[in-house]
Amino acid sequence: MKKLFLDLSQGISGDMFISALADAGVDFKGLEQGFKRAGVDVRLDIFSENRNGITGKLARVSSKNDQPLRTLEHVLSLIQRMDFSSQVKQKSAEAFQRLAQVEAQVHGVHKEQIHFHEIGAVDTLVDIVGAFWGLERLEVGEVTSTPMPWFSGEIEISHGKVPLPAPATAILMQGKKISPSDYDWEIITPTGALIVDQLVSVFENGFHGRLVRGGLGFGNIEKGFNGLRVFLWQDEHDGNYFQDMVWLLESNIDHLTGEELGTFFQKIMEAGALDVIFLHGIMKKNRPGGQIQVLCHDEDFVRVREEFFKHTLTLGMRVSKISRNILPRKECHVCLEGEQVKAKEARFSGKAYCRPEIEDLDRLAADKGLSLAEMRLKKNQP
Questions:
Q1: Statement to judge: residues 157 and 274 lie in one domain
Q2: Is the pTM of this model over 0.85?
């Protein structure tokens, strides 16, 4: 799994993040075309930029037509019309809902009532949707970063002058790891803070793994260096395996019914769990029960933990971080009964092994009037 590390020491904005991804190798022409197919006239230009003797990328968003002042409802409808992957659309929609929630908190209204420029501006649309779209192109599974730098000063908004960080930015920085700085201008914008809020799972000063490549993205404010560095990296690979770290959440359960356990298994997987296991055993007072074990990535930990407590009402759980050895894998297709079926290809000792996805296999079996077992035993043709 590829990961992305953000150096936030110089701040972050939406355009800085898009620029950095472009410098790391993302071709954003497909994003621009996707917006146009959804009826949004937009142009995204990527330029080379040199500041302080260092070359990076600079992204600029423009439109021939005036853009309407969009509400949250309008934005969500627009996102659903886009022909991007379901994951990109879902994460983009969640990000805009989070932004609307924060702006509503700032202005003291319900999020469905607000009309504001930040959420309607076409450049913010490009920045937020483009962030998830770009990470998908790089096949990034996790984002980490340095602590967010604190800054001061003032900025002029539609309601007048406000202190920095801007109100929405300050809310989005809550719960994040912060470090002091001497900056007295807006080095972190609300869109930049939103990207960190939605993407970053761990705040640390570096990473341990194999560096693949880096990228440098400049912002459109020419004050200071105003550059965001990103680093694409992978866990160490010892020949046959990749190694990564995941969270293990465990709890002994003796108070749930079978129906409640079944619901828990469904909800915890929907929350982002990688795996869930129930090990039967005898609990205190000779009660039949078992131990629940759940695995998840850093970016899903908080959500998985909350769902674990919510659907079990356990009084406590054991939490630890463990190392995994993982075979290199990728998506592929195999030909069964004259049809292409989605599969996963794993490699071990120089050989590839393809395993059809069970949902596609089950669908094809039903179409052919076969049982799932009969279909599974058909000879795979690569």
A1: no
A2: no
